[in-house]
Amino acid sequence: MTSTNSPQANDHIVLAGTDVSVPPLGVGTWAWGDKGTWGMGGYDTSYSEETILSAWQACIEAGVVLFDTAEVYGGGESERIIGRLLAHDPSVRDRVVIATKFMPSPWKLAVTGSLKSAARASIERMGIDVIDLYQIHGPISLRSHEALAEALAGAHSDGLVKAVGVSNYSVKETRSIDAALRKRGLRLASNQIEFSLLRSMPEKVGLLACCRELGVAPLAYSPIGQGRLTGKYTVANPPPKSRNFGNYPMETIEEIVAVLRRVGAAHDDRTPSQVALAWIIAKGAIPIPGAKNRAQAEDNAGALGWQMTGEEVAALDQVALYGQRGISQRIWQHG
């Protein structure tokens, strides 16, 4: 069952105030080069730079060309891997959109200098000329939004970045940084947040509505709960303990997966993860699931080219969880 209005990979979502456009689905690369959480070079022996290359190629073939990384992922290794992937076939640089992030640690009080230095280091690791989307990784800086906006504006005027965004910002914080950027002739392009059926809070608190109002693209990280919504994991086979996003009891998650399977069965047997991603797209956000290999990349791409009925979206709304609000979430995740 496919609608003529179904989201496609070649749909262009133009980031506010820029000529940078992204598809309705991207790729998160936290796992690329990460051992502690994702097991590269550790517990996941099926996972290597060779499998990452196959995932990268499959994504580009499918038109899923937004790749999100960060300076802290794998201690910079995620960015270095992207650099090697680009070097493997430089012709794809004009087709892909590279997003990365600056870690605004509290001790980085000279934030303009710190941010520009970090941006240059990211550019060097990836072997690119400019960062397509540069994001503040979280709301943990001791500096004001005016100071952060000034730092982003400086990186933009220096030609280091094309578009600027944030991550984990609340409604109030999103409005504040957006206003500070507008004073400097820039727009807030994105706010990257944890958003999934295991954390629907961004919709419930009005953050998605705020983003729509301001023209900010919400990027949804951990959109399948670090694998929990794929159907791969069960009570008897739980995910690795290092994966803490969406960490609800598997008995609860299995109930959600059952609904995902039921919806998927009505749409050419779409997989649970494809349905979970399609739900996010239906909410107006851009999911950025990870992909360790070609099979995962191709499965993710299957979230495009079809859409659910309003009744099916509502059925998933009924089982969506609000999200956890422990101390670590309150410090790091305001959005």
β-strand percent reads 5-15%
Q: What's the mean pLDDT score?
A: 94
- How big is the Rg? 19 Å
Largest sheet: 8 strands, parallel
Helix-strand pattern: EEEHEHEHEHEHEHHEHHEHHH
The rounded distance between the terminal residues' Cα atoms is 34 Å
- List the total number of helices: 12
Strand elements, count: 10
Q: Helix share of residues?
A: 25-40%
Shape from CA axes? globular
Q: Helices and strands: which structural class?
A: alpha/beta
Outline the fold blueprint.
Blueprint (H helix, E strand, L loop, with lengths): L12 E2 L6 E2 L4 E2 L20 H14 L3 E3 L8 H12 L8 E6 L8 H16 L4 E6 L8 H13 L3 E7 L3 H13 L4 E7 L6 H4 L2 H8 L2 E5 L28 H16 L6 H11 L3 E2 L6 H8 L8 H10 L7 H6 L3
Helix pairs in contact: 1-10, 2-3, 3-4, 4-5, 5-7, 8-9, 8-11
Structure, described:
With 335 residues, this protein is of the alpha/beta class. The protein contains 12 helices and 10 strands. The chain has helices at residues 49-62, 77-88, 111-126, 145-157, 171-183, 201-204, 207-214, 250-265, 272-282, 294-301, 310-319, 327-332; strands spanning 13-14, 21-22, 27-28, 66-68, 97-102, 131-136, 161-167, 188-194, 217-221, 286-287. The strands form 2 sheets. It has an 8-stranded parallel β-sheet. Strands 1-2 form a two-stranded antiparallel ribbon. Strand 7 (161-167), helix 5 and strand 8 (188-194) form a beta-alpha-beta unit. It is globular, with a radius of gyration of 19 Å.
